[in-house]
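As a warm-up, study this chain.
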Amino acid sequence: MRLVLASASPARLETLRRAGVHPTVVVSDVDESLVQTEDIHELVAELAKRKAEAVATEVLPSDDVVIVGCDSMLEVDGVTYGKPGSPENAAELWTRLSESTGLLVTGHHVIVSRGGEVRSTNRNAETLVHFADLSADEIRAYAATGEPEVVAGGFTIDGYGGPFITGIEGDPHNVVGISLPLLRMMLADLGVTWHDLWNTPA
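Now compare it with the structure written out below.
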């Protein structure tokens, strides 16, 4: 089986590689602003679906292929946050995140083409994230690294942001942007065994 990752995220790609899967990356051209909903679960699920389906139009028809689309958002006190987009926005966001708890939700859409049949499934993964109490200097320094402005929720646990996360409840891979345990279960629902995807780099 060949896996196609419908995402430009280096973190998602590296997470899969470390798990023995070396996907082909095909970035979708989905306009995320077209999806309008206040519900974080509906939002990430729909965006993940659109990304996977957009890439499917380029990859299919093809057999023995898995297409995975993902989208992540953070919700804190009922407000949803994506990528801050600038150091200023990142610093403002972290002023709110400091000493708080947020819900990181990642939508996953999986399309499997096998034996002439195309099937799909869509599910979300959730992880609670506890943020440290940061000083103004720490917030400015972290925003200046450039890291938080390009990631969902304005933070990472596998980079500069790691020391500012005091704990998580749920799958840590989900915080990086792709839940490996959930992906394994989704694939099983579509008749694909996880180890069928293990491969070596091309």
